[in-house]
Fold:
Amino acid sequence: MKNIAQQIYNAKENIILIYAFNSTGKTRLSVEYKNYTKNKNGNNAVGVYYNAYSEDLFQWNNDEDNDNADIKLNIVPSSLNKYHANLDEDLILDKLYPYKPKYKFFLNPLNDQNPEDGFGSVSFFLDGDEAHTPIKISRGEERIFVWCFFLALFEVDGWANVQNQHFFIDDPVSSMDDHNIFITAHLLLELLKKHCDNRKIIITTHHMGIFSILQDWLKKGENSGIFKSIKWHEKNVIKDDGTQVIEKIQKEENKYLVRFLELNNDTYKLVGQKNAIHLYHLLLLRIIQNASINDELNTYHFALLRQVLDCVASFVGEGRFGYVLDKLFSEESVEDINMKADVINALSHDKIYTQKIALLNEDNKTLINNVIDRLISTFHFSL
Structure:
């Protein structure tokens, strides 16, 4: 794993997006990268991390002796406490807002006499409950809160300003439903837009959906230009008279690197998508099909469908996903096919998620099911 950490450290790109199956070693990679970068910098921590260990810092105190009268989420004291001083409820609420939480909360100091010791716990209560009766939020809500706590901590003066070489974010989407996963994707995109020029940002995930959408936004989203840079390269050119001159050539380069982490015969490798053993489009198709079977289709799945159509279009040498729709629905009019393309394009747009448009009407469900059925039957995909 050390060689993978070294590859990431030496990569010229500032954004590293990595997909890996569960139990492949994502969390281990974050630890290895932390150790590697500390060794390269005099044993000093030079980056900030969100991973399974971050979540472990939050543990419920159910106050069972008093019938849950003072139930709260304890924050295990750590080296991060010294950075809590610049953190408050409003900063965390700002990050929580897109998730539309149904609760409010108080941050309780670890030591009332010394605020510099940071926070010791979080008390939650239902929004609108003037008595502030303590409640226990769900596992999914808890994971979203912890994620937003760290997102807010990334922004305050202190931690991320001192340890400012990189962010390493490992699977922030555990225990989230599909729509919240894509709100998370949007928040990650905003983080990338803000910091991609001043530090390295490594994101690892086992979730094909969030991997797919982030990759699409980096490559082709409306803000994709932010994630590219123009470099000038010198080239020796021999003119007609035999003289040699140096010409400067402008070249566009990506600020991001997309990779798959694979484990074969106890050996870890980072491979590009073309060389990955994963059948990318089939994984996406399976996600959509399972959601359809369980009646859980929402706008998120249109974003995945767009990815599948783009993959197929690219494979057959076409630059637009509408070409695939033309083949799938060849018996229909151009107007009807264009209408399908317009719906898919609109519902795969990243702004859909920030507007909290999650549920699909029956027409949209029918459309996505028809496209999936025809993709499978036309191209004989085996799921």
